[in-house]
Automatic annotation (TrEMBL), chain A:
Entry-linked InterPro entries: ABC_transp_permease
Species the sequence originates in: Microbispora rosea
PANTHER family: ABC TRANSPORTER, PERMEASE PROTEIN, GUANOSINE ABC TRANSPORTER PERMEASE PROTEIN NUPP
GO CC annotation terms, alphabetical: plasma membrane
Protein's recorded name: Simple sugar transport system permease protein
Keywords: Cell membrane, Membrane, Sugar transport, Transmembrane, Transmembrane helix, Transport
Transmembrane annotation, as ranges: 17-41, 61-83, 95-112, 118-141, 148-166, 200-220, 249-270, 328-347
Statement: the UniProt record of this protein carries the keyword Cell membrane: yes
UniProt-annotated location(s): Cell membrane
GO molecular function: transmembrane transporter activity
CDD domains given in the database record: TM_PBP1_transp_TpRbsC_like
Topology class, membrane: Multi-pass membrane protein
Automatic annotation (TrEMBL), chain B:
Chief location of this protein within or outside the cell: membrane
Superkingdom to which the source organism belongs: Bacteria
Domain ABC transporter substrate-binding protein PnrA-like, residue spans: 62-338
Subcellular location, record wording: Cell membrane
Protein's UniProt name: Nucleoside-binding protein
């Protein structure tokens, strides 16, 4: 028997047509609820969805959606690594922001030229993210502190630490905006003209994101480490019995989650803003949690979720031009996550009930035969 | 949702009562003047000018709010009041309002500016300095669209107007008022964060205090470091900072700390001392239980700046570059609500005139 959390985090797979039914039900349900909300708010749902469709099919918006989606996807991967082991790394947000501050500070100082600087920035971000997450892992292993609590608190500390670093060490003032020194031109991540018909380049980090997605799948499904990670997530006692060091797994998984988290800010830092300031995107770690749930920790599912999320976020400007309040986007995002969870749960329950009926039918069938004989 | 809306309406009504009428009269005078000037030009040049008859196409205003948008009872609302007033008084004005989401990436702001410019909105007004990089990128690509940005001096271009405030001048008067009212010759300043924007208030305030009482003691506290915006939302911290000042002997504290300011008012209430408000006439907007401690407020008229800008676009007198809303233009001012400064008002008014006429110089830092 599988628990709700197992089903929620996608550790139980659906087979056959049920795997298709769940997302279809979820999308239909989300569209329905959103339409009702739009009607209540006095807007025309048909107009809203038409605008969304028009916006989403333009080349320039597609490039924008990919660019934001890359960050969301990396964030979801970072969260999913922990989820697969029952580790709830709520601290992805603090990990990526702190990583971005330190990496931006060093990158802006330009201690090494050109491509080397890009490499340095990325490596520093990964290391800082990993170390910051390791604190929560070690606290869990040696002091039994729940990682949910410690990572939330570490988020607050990361905010303070980051603002101290920017204001006291890396800060340069541009108008009212205090930020790190911009990373020099020779160390910018080149964009890719991926989408025809628009001058907007797709962030070069899309390659990194795709590779990370593949690595995530390979490591989890095709390595001993991945097996141990999944085993620990499914049953800690069983994992211990089969010789897995759970303590080691917890620390290593947190470190991996944090290392991936360190990369979240890189597309923005090396491909768009080139510095860390008040305008640096915040809250991506929490977006990652929602997308990991939406994609059920599946590398392809999360990619779809990241693009959907990014599409909705990016379309808020267009919706506002139509006099539709931008909060509708948040409502849609929330409804999508909830309907995915509910739809999958319904389908799972349907499957369980169907299976029970089938089993009881099979069990009942041979019993009827002797009865019939006895009657005869 | 409904509550927010009705509060916004209430705020806007309050603002209209608080003296926009004065600005409107000046505006009508400007319009009248412009019409006279236009007539003169036409008369002087004969038939040649007929091609340059004033454009009758209605103005399509794009207004980009910062986080919070209309209804935030603060920064954004002040801009909204200016635009609402313009809608009532300038014919054929249509406004499209869009707002920022918390924590959005920089690219989203760029797209917002572009979407408005591309859809033909002109002028496009950005409320808040966070739009500066987006404006710097998009404004050059739409040379015929006029852009304005509130509170940000650095971004510039032939089609960009920077709407700035001489907050140091208003704060100078606050310092003077504090020094005049202080019995202990000991006053305080609580800033939200140590950002350049807030520092300008402190610099003006200190000059004002020293102008009146050169030997007065000034206690200064900032709630957070420059990068940390949480200082504008920590009334508990502000209350402690103000408490320390009052206990140590200060009897007037000026707060420039956004929502944290409420903590300073509470501390003043406890200590039986004065506090000074900022941005709005806070003796009208603060919690009724603490309004009696608010000596006066330094009013920053973002609504006036936005209104004047729209009016100047409407009558074709708009200029690019920095426009500083100072005491002379009525961009910063002080409030009289509560009647606590009636005794010193003549002296304050005289100081104000001296600043306006350049007899007293206030350094912006």
């Amino acid at each position: 028997m599988n628990g709700f959390v197992d089903r929620l985090l996608g550790r139980v797979r659906l087979g056959g047509w049920l795997a298709v039914a769940a997302p279809v039900i979820a999308v239909a349900f989300a569209v329905l609820i959103t339409s009702v909300v739009l009607l209540i708010a006095g807007s025309d749902p048909v107009g809203a969805f038409t605008t969304l469709a028009e916006y989403g099919t333009q080349p320039r918006s597609m490039a924008m959606i990919l660019n934001t989606g890359v960050m969301y996807y990396i964030s979801a991967l970072a969260v999913a690594v922990g989820f697969r082991m029952n580790l709830f790394n709520i601290g992805v947000d603090g990990q990526y922001r702190l990583a971005a501050v330190v990496a931006a500070g060093l990158g802006g100082a330009a201690v090494v030229p050109g491509v080397l600087n890009i490499v340095l920035v990325i490596v520093v971000a990964v290391v800082v993210g990993a170390l910051w997450a390791a604190i929560a892992g070690l606290l869990r292993v040696y002091r039994g502190v729940s990682e949910v609590i410690s990572t939330i608190m570490l988020n607050a500390i990361a905010t303070g630490l980051g603002s101290w670093l920017v204001s006291e060490h890396f800060g340069v003032l541009t108008g009212n905006d205090l930020g790190t020194r911009p990373i020099p031109d020779d160390a910018h991540m080149p964009g890719i003209p991926l989408i025809a018909g628009t001058p907007v380049l797709v962030n070069g980090f899309i390659v990194v994101a795709v590779l990370l997605g593949i690595a995530y799948w390979v490591v989890l499904n095709r390595t001993r480490f991945g097996f141990e990670l999944r085993a620990t997530g499914k049953s800690e006692s069983a994992a211990v019995a089969s010789g897995v060091s759970v303590k080691k797994m917890i620390v290593v998984t947190m470190v991996m989650s944090g290392a991936v988290a360190g990369l979240i800010g890189m597309p923005e830092l090396l491909g768009a803003s080139y510095k860390y300031s008040n305008n640096f995107p915040a809250g991506l770690g929490f977006t990652g949690i929602a997308i990991a749930l939406l994609g059920r920790n599946n590398p392809v599912g999360m990619a779809v979720g990241a693009l959907l999320w990014s599409f909705l976020d990016n379309s808020s400007n267009q919706l506002q031009l139509l006099d539709i309040s931008k909060e509708i986007v948040q409502i849609m995002q929330g409804v999508v996550v909830l309907s995915v969870i509910i739809a999958y749960e319904l389908v799972h329950r349907y499957r369980i009930v169907a299976e029970q009926r089938r089993v009881s039918r099979e069990l009942a069938a041979p019993q009827e035969a002797p009865k019939a004989e006895a009657a005869a | 949702m409904w509550r927010v809306l009705s509060r916004a309406q209430w705020v806007s009504r309050r603002w209209v009562h608080s003296g926009l009428g004065v600005r409107l009269r000046t505006f009508r005078a400007v319009i009248a003047g412009a019409v006279v000037a236009a007539v003169t030009v036409v008369a002087g040049c004969g038939g040649v000018v007929s091609t340059t008859s004033p454009r009758t196409r209605p103005l399509q205003v794009g207004l980009m709010y910062d986080i919070g948008g209309r209804g935030d009872q603060s920064y954004n609302d002040a801009a909204a009041v200016g635009v609402d007033e313009a809608k009532r008084n300038l014919t054929g004005l249509r406004v499209r309002e869009v707002e920022a989401a918390p924590g959005e990436p920089a690219g989203r702001k760029v797209e917002r500016v572009r979407a408005l410019a591309e859809a033909g909105y002109d002028p496009v007004i950005a409320v808040g300095y966070s739009y500066a990089p987006a404006l710097a990128r998009i404004a050059p690509r739409f040379p015929k669209t006029r852009f304005a940005i509130v509170d940000e001096p650095t971004v510039s271009g032939p089609n960009i107007t920077n709407l700035l405030f001489a907050s140091e001048e208003g704060s100078f008067l606050m310092g003077a008022a504090a020094a005049m009212k202080s019995k202990t010759a000991d006053v305080g300043f609580v800033g939200g964060n140590r950002s350049p924007l807030v520092r300008k208030f402190e610099i003006g305030y200190v000059q004002g205090v020293k102008h009146v009482k050169p030997r007065a003691r000034i206690r200064i506290a900032y709630l957070t470091a420059p990068h940390d915006l949480s200082g504008f939302d920590r009334p508990d911290k502000a209350r402690k900072a103000a408490q320390r000042m009052y206990r140590a002997g200060a009897d007037v504290v000026y707060q420039v700390a956004g929502a944290s300011g409420a903590g300073v008012f509470r501390a003043a209430d406890k200590a039986g001392a004065w506090a000074i408000g900022v941005d709005y006439d806070q003796a009208k907007s603060a919690d009724p239980a603490v309004r009696h401690v608010i000596l006066t407020s330094m009013i920053k008229r973002i609504d006036v700046a936005v209104y004047d800008y729209l009016a100047s676009v409407a009558d074709h007198t708009v200029t690019s570059g920095r426009v500083v809303y100072d005491l002379r233009r009525g961009g910063v001012d002080y409030s009289l609500t509560g009647g606590h400064i009636t005794d010193i008002q003549p002296r304050l008014e005289q100081l104000k005139q001296e600043i306006i006429h350049g007899k007293v110089r206030v350094s912006p830092g």
